[in-house]
Amino acid sequence: DAKTTQPTSMDCAEGRAANLPCNHSTISGNEYVYWYRQIHSQGPQYIIHGLKNNETNEMASLIITEDRKSSTLILPHATLRDTAVYYCIVRVNAGNMLTFGGGTRLMVKP
Amino acid sequence: GAVVSQHPSRVICKSGTSVKIECRSLDFQATTMFWYRQFPKQSLMLMATSNEGSKATYEQGVEKDKFLINHASLTLSTLTVTSAHPEDSSFYICSARVQGGRGEQYFGPGTRLTVT
């Protein structure tokens, strides 16, 4: 699975959009981009995933660049409960394990 | 979404004893379950992949005789930490992959193990 690079930490004001970047320059054509988050002392929670097209669900939007070498997870209106570590993972869909990197620690502030 | 449970959520045990952690998929069947370990301020590290009805596959550096995994049904996998030592104290998390799905994986809430 391709390696990803994310900033170690980010801050966001409550009510504003949180934009979390991820670089995956070695991504293969059959690899998807997955986003999970982990709130302190809990198991990871699936957020969204995509291959080429931008995706949106009730939690977030995923913007993937045309060359697929990077992506951005957007939380449109961040709340204090969105404070968590966000992991960007690339893997072949229906593949096996998820390989977690360091993630981005997002702190939403009042 | 699909729900995965873990039991117990927290356990404290004495050094040298064994501890069993259960991972259950509550509303779906999971041919494959994964066990992760997470030390404080670190990311999740995969320990082993558990397939129903067959032996688990362990990651390099994980002792299979110390971390016994059993996946006896499509909804239950267990991890037994044998002869626990204080350095085994960690947050243990399982995930389950939906059988026949598109590779969706759902995580349990984790088990905090403290060995005294």
The chain pair with the largest interface is: A-B, 20 and 25 residues
Mean pLDDT of chain B: 93
Proportion of residues in helical segments of chain B: under 10%
Structural class of chain B: mainly beta
Q: C-alpha Rg of chain A, in Å?
A: 13 Å
Number of E-type strands of chain A: 9
Could you tell me the number of beta strands of chain B? 11
> How would you sum up the global shape of chain B?
globular
Strand content of chain A: over 45%
Oligomer: heterodimer
Specify the number of helices of chain A: 0
Tell me the distance between the termini of chain B: 37 Å
Q: Describe the main β-sheet of chain A briefly.
A: 5 strands, mixed
Largest sheet of chain B: 7 strands, mixed
| Straight-line distance between termini of chain A | 37 Å
Provide the spatial order of strands within the biggest beta sheet of chain A.
Answer: 1-9-8-3-4
Assign a percent range to the helix content of chain A: under 10%
Order of helices and strands of chain B: EEEEEEEEEEE
Strand fraction of chain B: over 45%
Features:
heterodimer; A: 110 residues; mainly beta; five-stranded mixed β-sheet; four-stranded antiparallel β-sheet; 0% helix; globular; B: 116 residues; seven-stranded mixed β-sheet; 11 strands
Task: Explain how this protein is built.
Chain A is mainly beta and 110 residues long. Chain A contains no helices and nine strands. In chain A, the strands form two sheets. A five-stranded mixed β-sheet of chain A has the order 1-9-8-3-4, with no helix packed on it. The N and C termini of chain A lie far apart (37 Å). Chain B has 116 residues and is mainly beta. Chain B contains no helices and eleven strands. The A-B interface holds A 36, 38, 41-46, 87, 93-103 and B 1, 4, 6, 32, 34, 36, 43-46, 49, 91, 93, 95, 101-110, 112.
Summarize, please:
Chain A is built from no helices and nine strands.
List the SSEs and their pairings.
The complex is a heterodimer of chains A (110) and B (116).
Chain A: E1 9-13, E2 18-23, E3 31-38, E4 45-50, E5 55-56, E6 61-64, E7 70-75, E8 84-92, E9 104-109
Parallel strand pairs in A: 1-9
Antiparallel strand pairs in A: 2-7, 3-4, 3-8, 5-6, 6-7, 8-9
Chain B: E1 4-7, E2 10-13, E3 19-25, E4 32-38, E5 45-51, E6 57-58, E7 67-73, E8 76-81, E9 90-97, E10 105-107, E11 111-115
Parallel strand pairs in B: 2-11
Antiparallel strand pairs in B: 1-3, 3-8, 4-5, 4-9, 5-6, 7-8, 9-10, 9-11
